Amino acid sequence: MASHYGAAISRLVPVALALVLGGCASFSPDGGFGPVADAVKAESGKDAFWARSDEDRAARDARVAELVGKGPLSVDDAVQVALLNNRGLQAELAELGIAEADLVQAGRLPNPRFSVHRVSGDHHYALERAISFNIFSLVTMPLATEVEKRRFAGAQQRAILEVLRTAAETRKAWLEAVAAEESLRYLRQVSAAAEAGAELASRMARAGNWSALARAREQGFYADAALGVARAEQMAGSARERLTRLLGLWGDQATTLALPERLPGLPPQAEDRPAIEREAMMRRLDVRAAVSETRALAANLDLSRATRFVSVVELGASREKEAKDEPYVKGYDISLELPIFDWGTARVARAETLYRQALDRAADTAINARSEVREAYRHYRLSHDIARHYRDEIVPLRKRIAEENLLMYNGMLIGVFDLLADARSQVLSVTGYVDALRAFWIAEADLDMAMIGRTAPPAVSRASVPQAESGGGH
To answer: How far is the C-alpha of 440 from the C-alpha of 378, rounded, in Å?
Structure first.
């Protein structure tokens, strides 16, 4: 009877192995990056890129050189360069490869164990050969694979979010750099006007036509203007360097990078989006990732319960003979772990706690997402109102005042110092508009980012998946 069972098992094990191995997971050609690239394209219109070979890196370098070298770098080209060339982003995308490796590993059976036992002596001889396989892994493998599938999907969602966050940060850095350069040019005009006033005041004071107080006032204006230029140069340099870091540029590409002279103009109207919260709940990638993580932990809980009492069951075929001239006798071996000391309650309790924690985190993510979108939309609308007020009211009013003062100067009703002071005020109103315009475009970028995820999301934990233990051999 034992021989009969041994023969049946010997025939069954290879068939089971063939069926399971035929369904084993394998690596995808693109490492799972295809859905990430498609989602980024749909959200931003830009091409995401993950360099996985020397050929990929060479193609990337050529594309970056083309975009940077064709003239002043537009905001869209800057975003594209960052998605191609930002090394930190490339390092984050490598998490996809790690998650896919975990998925493939979860879909592969543990290796069988082969053993040989030989005993010989004067009056005794025994030779036993056995091959065993942990059949319990056949039960747990579908659950473990499903857990890793959900984690891999979560890794793809996080990769999409990281790419889009890099795009948003690059857009904001480009706006900061261009606005800083534009403000610097206007402040230099203010400084030039103040310098002319200080020089004229000094000459008139030497001629006895100007008081020491008036001369000191004009020199004070010039000193403040020169200090403002120095600070603006510092801010412009820092903004430019932040942009080059996000673009991943260095060497000649960083030093010769050309940017436009002005920011884009203000749109006539701010977008009216009454259903913005509902739209955000459908698009927010961190909410999707939290839901995916919760589902993965739910599957993890099922797996922990399934392996609570027994986590190792090995089945194998064997044959042995007692003497050299006797035939082999076939048989089979079964071994399992006895739950004497560890009943698996700790593993189940841990899985249940992780699941409850994920539920609360998912709810917290949804609550925060709604609040963040409302805040970003409110800031977007107010920033547009402020910039429009500068454009339609303050700047035209300053221009009209300057024209009237010029007429009065031509009629010798005011002096040259009044004209210079008015020129300084007019230029400062323009710099105020530039700053308001910069704030609006950044608010729009923040709103776009708030629609798809948080700017700095909390780290997502990678809870371990309980695996079927193999003892000495799998």
So the answer is: 11
